[in-house]
From TrEMBL, chains A, B, C, D:
<dbReference type="GO" id="GO:0047429">
    <property type="term" value="F:nucleoside triphosphate diphosphatase activity"/>
</dbReference>
<dbReference type="InterPro" id="IPR025984">
    <property type="entry name" value="DCTPP"/>
</dbReference>
<dbReference type="Pfam" id="PF12643">
    <property type="entry name" value="MazG-like"/>
</dbReference>
<dbReference type="InterPro" id="IPR052555">
    <property type="entry name" value="dCTP_Pyrophosphatase"/>
</dbReference>
<dbReference type="GO" id="GO:0009143">
    <property type="term" value="P:nucleoside triphosphate catabolic process"/>
</dbReference>
<protein>
    <recommendedName>
        <fullName>MazG nucleotide pyrophosphohydrolase</fullName>
    </recommendedName>
</protein>
Length: 112, 112, 112, 112
C-alpha cells in the first residue's frame, strides 16, 4: 500500500476542479450520476468474461490498465461526492462494517 | 478527516468476507457488478431532486443516513475489487490525477 | 407474444404520470437516471449467481417475479425517456441493427 | 410511431447473435450486466446538463444521435434478456402499470 493519503488526494481533486471552474457542474446529484457511470465503465470490462477469465483479468495489460484507470475514476468521484456532502468516507465505511458485523453473523452464507 | 487508514479497513473487509466464506462469490466480475449496483443505489437518492435540493441533501436526516450508508457500500466494494485485482486505489488515483492534469489544461471548460 | 401494443402502453404511462403531476420531475435527465437505477436493480438479481444459476433464474418463483417486475420498470422508463425526447424506440432499434450488421460481419467473434 | 413490431425485431436480434455465435456469452447474467452498462451510457449524455439543457437535448444533432443510439442499445439488451428469461416485455409492463395504479392513487405526489 502506498503512503499516499486520502485527504491529500481529495484536496488535489478539489484544486483540479476549481482550476477548471467546475463548481457549478459538481452538484451532489451530478457527482452521484458520474460516479454511477464510472462504476458501469468498470463493470463493462468484465461483462463478457467467465468467472475464471475475470479472476485473471490483470494478466492482460490492456485490461489491467483499464481496470486501474476506472478504479481511479470511481474513487475520484466518490471522494468528490463525499466531500460535497461532508461525509468522511473511511469513517462511514468503519461504521458500516460495524453494522454489518451485527447483521450478518459469521459462518457460511450467501452474500446479499 | 478521521485517522482511520484504508489498509486496515481493507483488511477488515477481507476478514469479514472470509468468516462468511464469500470467497467463491467474490470474483472480480461479481464485485464489479455489486459496485455498480451500489453506485446506482447512491444515485437513486438524488434522482428526483433539483440541483438545489441535491446541494442540501444532508439537511434531511433520513437522506443523510442513506448517503453515508451508500458511500460506505461503494467504498467497500471498490476496496474489495481493487484488492482482488492487486490495484492500489490511492496510487491509481494519484496517477490518474497526473494524467488528467496533462489532458485538461486549467481554465474554464465543461467537464467530460 | 401478447397483442398489446407499445403505443398504447406509452400512452398509459403518460396518463399515469400526468394524473400524479409528475411532469416537473420527468425531465429527460431524471428519466435517464431512473432508467439506469432500474437497470441496476435488474442486474442486482444476478450479481452473485453463477452463469449456470443465471440461466435457470426463472425456476425460482421469487426471482422470476423480480425479473418480470424490473424488466417492466426498465421498459417503463425507457418509453417515458424516449417519449420525452421524441424518439421512436422501435425505429431507433431497427436502424441500430442495420448499423451493427455492417459493423460486425457474421461469423464467430467476441461480443463488444 | 413506426409500424415495426417488437416480435420481428426480437427475432432479428436472435438471428444476429446466432450468426456471430454469441450464445455462450448471452447468459441472463451477462445480458443484465450489458443492459445496465448501456443504460449508464445513456445517462452519461445527461450527467453535466441542467434540467433545462436536458429538456432541449435533441436540438444538438450530436447528442440527439447518441440518445437514439443508446436508447436502441438499451432496448436491444432488454429484449434479449427478456427473451432469454421467457418474459413478454409488453405483458410485464401492462401488469406493472396495473400494480402501480393500485399502489399510487392519482393526485400530486413525489415520484418514487
Amino acid at each position: 500500500m502506498s503512503d499516499l493519503d486520502i485527504a491529500t488526494l481529495q484536496r488535489r481533486l478539489i484544486d483540479f476542479a476549481e482550476a477548471r471552474e467546475w463548481g457549478p457542474y459538481h452538484t451532489p446529484k451530478n457527482l452521484a450520476m458520474a460516479l454511477s457511470v464510472e462504476a458501469s465503465e468498470l463493470a463493462e470490462i468484465f461483462q463478457w468474461l467467465t468467472p475464471e477469465e475475470s479472476a485473471d483479468v490483470m494478466s492482460d495489460p490492456d485490461k489491467a490498465f483499464r481496470v486501474r484507470d476506472e478504479v481511479a475514476d470511481v474513487m475520484a468521484y466518490l471522494l468528490q461526492l463525499a466531500g460535497a456532502c461532508g461525509v468522511d468516507v473511511l469513517q462511514a465505511l468503519a461504521e458500516k462494517i460495524e453494522r454489518n458485523e451485527m447483521r450478518f453473523p459469521p459462518g457460511p452464507a450467501k452474500p446479499r
